[in-house]
From TrEMBL, chain A:
Involved in regulation of actin and microtubule organization. Part of a WAVE complex that activates the Arp2/3 complex. It comes from the Eukaryota. Residues 201-213 have a biased composition (Polar residues). InterPro entries: ABI (IPR028457). The gene is LOC116196034. Belongs to the ABI family. This is Protein ABIL2-like isoform X1.
Automatic annotation (TrEMBL), chain B:
Coiled coil: none annotated. Its main location: cytoplasm. It comes from Punica granatum. One of its GO terms (molecular function) is identical protein binding. GO terms for cellular component: cytoskeleton; SCAR complex. Keywords: Coiled coil, Cytoplasm, Cytoskeleton. One of its GO terms (biological process) is actin filament organization. Belongs to the BRK1 family. It is found in: Cytoplasm, Cytoskeleton. This is Uncharacterized protein. It comes from the Eukaryota.
Amino acid sequence: MGTMTASSFPISREASNYDEVSMQQSLMFSDSLKDLKNLRAQLYSAAEYFELSFTNDDQKQIVVETLKDYAVKALVNTVDHLGSVTYKVNDLLDEKVDEVSGTELRVSCIEQRLRTCLQYIDHEGRSQQSLVINTPKFHKRYILPVGETMRGSDGTKLKYQGSFLDDGDDWHQFRNAVRATIKETPPPVSKGRSPAPSVRPQKSATFSFTSTMPKKELDSDKRTASPHRFPLLRSGSVTNRSVTPNSSRPTTPNTSRPTTPNLSLAGRRYPSEPRKSASMRLPAERDNGKDVEQYPSKSKRLLKALLSRRKSKKDETLYTYLDEY
Amino acid sequence: MARAGGITNAVNVGIAVQADWENREFISHISLNVRRLFDFLVQFEATTKSKLAALNEKLDTLERRLELLEVQVGTASANPSLFNT
């Protein structure tokens, strides 16, 4: 209680001092205004007095001199009064303008506080609403978009065709399928297909696909080969390829649709495919030249159809190798 | 004698004319200062009017802002659920 009185006492004293000063100033200002008002009456009365004395008195020169002095003094006094009054008015106006500016500042501060409160309320509401919503989560997919070019092993740019081989498993399956296709086709010894004689002994049924392909190309093929080529290998027909259009296949693999093609599923689709393998063929069939010619031509068309989808130099070299079979 | 009186009259007339010109000069000075004082008063009136107009405009703006603040605070205090978060 004592501290409150001690702390509030200087404030009240300052307030009383301020009130006293302001009262004195206002009194002085009102006195100045009263003097200005009385000055008008005094000037009029002095003018009347000097007029009468000038007409009645004989000492006109003295009256004129006195009038001159009085006029000068009255003018100076009026200027002083007006100067003080205008100064006080200016001071009062500046004080009021400062008060208004201070009040504007306070109002701006209050507005800013209110805006901060509103922003905080909005933020809190937004955070509350955002906790309710479950945002879907997507896994990352590294997909090369269609039409994008990538660097091949020989420095040439390979055009991406919109299909790719995602996994190494796919690549191995593709390679095994190509090997099986190569193995089932006998070497065209009887056919004069114009391979170079020096090259012919090098190309045998044990053609290693990996030996002819550098590892870089393998890596690039891992990205570019499509898993939808395996059904083409087994079907051996171009018409079956149109059954699974590549354009309709989404680039992002679905979980319901595995990226690695199922061989069992393909086997179910083409149950007559194993009968075409070279190991299961009868010797009589092998001797049949027509069949021998038919199978390489089928395989050739199959591989052509397979490899025509890949426009790269690597595939062209592979195509030239396979074309000889 | 008459010549001397004529000279005296001429001198008196000259003195009177000189005094008249001095009085005229004094009156012109006084009137000039009064006009300056009047010009000062007119200028002071214009300045004070403009200051008062600016102050009035500020007070009007302040009054509107205070009314807006009053409404906003009243709305916020009328809905206490906003502060319960």
